[in-house]
């Protein structure tokens, strides 16, 4: 191929380049022009995990992506394409020294067998598997979430009952909003921990992380709700101490008023 | 109007001494007719009822405002705690 003809030059230049290619005895002849220029795919999982040891994932298919079907090539073309692979410069072993060869120590794989996803699994399958593995955990979280909701609801009623002022409910409502956020977060870790936790994203690691965060989040919420309950009880006690004598005085003076009104009329 | 009976009612009541003295002053005011005495006593007692209701309301409002302040602090505390969890997973 002549360097005088740039690849992205004029149409004539490109045709000339193509004609030169077809004339070359070492270049295979490709019949169809409809073969996509790019047949590879980006391994999102490997990239997102930050793994430096990228591995081709030919056996896995990306979600929602169906690669275009290749047109059937004649057998001769296939053979030639296979031959084309040999166009890569062959690796030449350095001249062997006279010293005995050193047996190379295999590098420790980034993923163990347990951590490495099975090649046949798609992300969808992984997600389903993860959810299945987390059934007990999810049920436990749901139970805790319901417990917190009940607690917050009871506190809201207590707030109105004890203080008689509706705005205090806002505190419990905010707690519920935070709870929803935490529940979503836990669910998110549960489903996508594998992706978000990078190299540590084994099923066990994701489960441990989800459990840890769920435990922490629920502890924060339950402790916070307990403190709210303490505050409302303290307010109730304070109100009782301050208002009760006044209420007694009020009741008595109303009774006196009625008695005097009766006596004055008689 | 039986002054003696009313006087006994006021003396035996749970009112503070100052209020008792004020009411007794009305009863013993010879310049007032029985109707004027009755009106003055009713006005005084109604005023006392209104004041007590106001005091009860103030006590309630103060306690609730303090509770509200503490609950808002808890909101903030909880938000900070959950933000830490968010940062742990890079959400």
Description:
The complex is a heterodimer of chains A (266) and B (91). Chain A contains seven helices and no strands. Chain A has a domain at 124-235. Chain A is mainly α and 266 residues long. Chain B has 91 residues and is mainly alpha-helical. Chain B has one domain. Chain B has three helices and no strands. The longest helix of chain B has 56 residues, at 34-89. Chain B starts with a helix and ends with a helix. Chains A and B meet through helix 6 and helix 7 of A and helix 1 and helix 3 of B.
Write a brief structural summary.
The complex is a heterodimer of chains A (266) and B (91). By secondary structure, chain A is mostly helical.
From the N-terminal CA to the C-terminal CA of chain B, the straight-line distance is 81 Å
Task: Specify the number of helices of chain B.
Answer: 3
User: Oligomeric status of the shown chains?
Assistant: heterodimer
Helix and strand succession of chain A? HHHHHHH
Q: Classify the helix fraction of chain B into a percent range.
A: over 70%
Radius of gyration of chain A, in angstroms, nearest whole number: 37 Å
The assigned structural class of chain B equals: mainly alpha
DSSP summary, beta strand count of chain B? 0
Radius of gyration of chain B, in angstroms, nearest whole number:
27 Å
In which range does the helix fraction of chain A lie? 55-70%
Total number of distinct structural domains of chain B? 1
Specify the overall morphology of chain A: rod-shaped
Q: Extract low-pLDDT stretches of chain B.
A: none
Q: What's the pLDDT, averaged over the residues of chain B?
A: 82
Strand and helix order of chain B: HHH
N- to C-terminal distance of chain A = 129 Å
The backbone outline of chain B, from C-alpha atoms, is: rod-shaped
The amount of beta strand of chain B, in percent, is under 5%
